[in-house]
Backbone:
């Protein structure tokens, strides 16, 4: 327990000491809210769809968590490249424990980022449909942070260099975000896009948050939670499996 | 009879078709300072990695303080401290935090942690800088911190993998003086690799020379000179390993192997 705690603390220290990292990862959601929330919001309203900012914010929170979680994987990669992982791997500690402590730290950072975006959204004029449902929405945020952090950890364990990691970022993270229900309602999109979005687990994360925060849902909350749970189990298994295979 | 702390028995490590370590056998007794010499890619690092549980031997048996490194991994890990060839500190943490993290990983009792960290940081003359981030440290300071960290859990064996690489003469002398003291006063067993023959000659009680994954000679400096009919360690070393240069990642033969490169080449095929 003690060990999990210090490994968690290490991640949190690294985050809170790096102001540029906090700001850097908040830049993109801010931009999205401004450009899309206000820019496209006007057209959206004219099309009779209602308040686009309300629709968009759950998507942006999800994007922030996705980006922050996968980006966090870089720390595993840095540990691997700059040697600190050797120190961890020769310690009399199970690899699972090392992964658990570190990933909990990574998830905590994602959760904080998600909450910060929520607060910024409130300034931008976002209002949750029911303040009581913000608490279960926070639960969803925690759960999806854990799933996506495991995903990031697994990916980082697999690649050996930063260019490779960048490539995966572009090849995986961007499509996961753009081809989900984060930016547009799935009701009216062409069939191909709808099919892709429907098999993308990120859509269900967005949908769960949207259902709780603004009372709009495409799949239904039950289905969302089921998919998130499955995604969590799959990602965690993937992370443990890959992390165990790291050879120095 | 002296107590054996490190024992290798016919240890082999293969990466695919390539044999990096080819059946090495040796013993190191308690309190001994043992040096591993060899050209680039002779198998030194692969051997250290196997001894420190980072790589699994393909065959053979390796024990540290009586614990098998593959079967009794945690007990074996508790028995040694290591200063890696490459830096292995968290640069974004302070010196103290790096030490504390290590103390926790090795389950040093909570009440003793602070005192022990202070004692060791004072010893390597870094206590005044304990709250500075490691990224502000010079190469020598980092090395000293790594040594202090490696000793934190009071290991019986200390591995030093080319510990003086890139250090100035003052730091080198200080470090070796300290290593000698550890062996003499605490009876700590020291196993180190180096490229500097004078270091091995000065510091080590016994030396093993490894080449092409095999130990070609073991003994004290005079013994090695006698075995080869030469006058000093350097000529003995050159006689045993030849004068030609080694290419670390050369493929297709057994010469010069860097484990990581070999594995990468293997996976590319």
Residues:
């Amino acid at each position: 327990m003690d060990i999990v705690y210090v490994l968690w603390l290490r991640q949190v220290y690294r985050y809170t000491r790096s102001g540029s990292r906090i700001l850097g990862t908040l830049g993109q959601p801010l931009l999205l809210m401004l450009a899309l929330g206000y820019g496209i919001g006007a057209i959206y309203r004219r099309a009779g769809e209602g308040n686009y900012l309300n629709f968009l914010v759950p998507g942006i929170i999800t994007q922030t968590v996705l980006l922050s979680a996968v980006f966090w994987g870089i720390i595993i990669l840095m540990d691997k490249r700059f040697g600190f992982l050797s120190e961890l791997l020769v310690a009399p500690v199970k690899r699972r424990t090392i992964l658990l402590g570190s990933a909990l730290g990574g998830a905590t950072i994602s959760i904080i980022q998600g909450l910060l975006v929520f607060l910024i959204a409130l300034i931008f004029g976002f209002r949750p449909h029911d303040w009581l449902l913000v608490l279960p929405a926070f639960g969803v945020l925690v759960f999806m942070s854990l799933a996506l952090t495991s995903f990031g950890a697994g990916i980082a364990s697999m690649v050996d260099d930063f260019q490779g990691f960048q490539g995966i970022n572009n090849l995986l993270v961007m499509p996961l975000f753009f081809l989900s229900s984060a930016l547009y309602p799935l009701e009216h999109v062409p069939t191909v896009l709808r099919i892709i979005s429907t098999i993308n687990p990120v859509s269900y994360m967005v949908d769960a948050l949207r259902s709780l925060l603004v009372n709009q849902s495409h799949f239904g909350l039950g289905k969302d939670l089921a998919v998130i749970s499955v995604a969590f189990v799959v990602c965690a298994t993937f992370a443990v499996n890959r992390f165990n295979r790291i050879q120095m | 009879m002296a107590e054996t702390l490190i024992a290798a028995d016919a240890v082999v490590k293969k990466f695919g078709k390539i044999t990096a370590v080819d059946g090495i056998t040796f013993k190191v007794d308690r309190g001994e300072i043992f040096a591993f010499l060899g050209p680039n890619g002779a198998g030194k690092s692969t051997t250290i990695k196997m001894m420190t549980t980072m790589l699994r031997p393909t065959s053979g048996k390796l024990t540290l303080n009586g614990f098998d490194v593959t079967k009794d991994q945690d007990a074996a890990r508790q028995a040694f401290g290591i200063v890696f060839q490459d830096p292995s500190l968290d640069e974004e943490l302070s010196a103290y935090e790096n030490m504390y993290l290590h103390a926790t990983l090795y389950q040093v009792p909570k009440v003793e942690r602070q005192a022990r960290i202070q004692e060791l940081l004072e010893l390597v003359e870094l206590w005044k800088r304990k709250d500075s981030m490691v990224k502000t440290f010079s190469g020598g300071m980092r090395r000293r911190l790594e040594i202090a960290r490696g000793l934190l859990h009071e290991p019986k064996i200390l591995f030093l993998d080319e510990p003086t690489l890139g250090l100035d003469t003052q730091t080198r002398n200080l470090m070796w003086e300290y290593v000698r003291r550890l062996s003499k006063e605490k009876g700590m067993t020291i196993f180190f690799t180096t490229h500097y023959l004078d270091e091995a000659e000065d510091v080590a009680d016994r030396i093993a020379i490894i080449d092409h994954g095999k130990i070609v000679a073991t003994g004290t400096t005079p013994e090695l000179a006698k075995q080869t009919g030469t006058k000093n360690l350097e000529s003995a070393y050159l006689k045993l390993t030849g004068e030609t240069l080694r290419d670390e990642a050369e493929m297709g033969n057994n010469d010069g192997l860097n484990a990581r490169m070999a594995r990468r080449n293997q996976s590319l095929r």
In short: Strands of chain B lie at 4-15, 18-29, 33-37, 59-64, 67-68, 80-83, 157-161, 189-193, 206-211, 214-219.
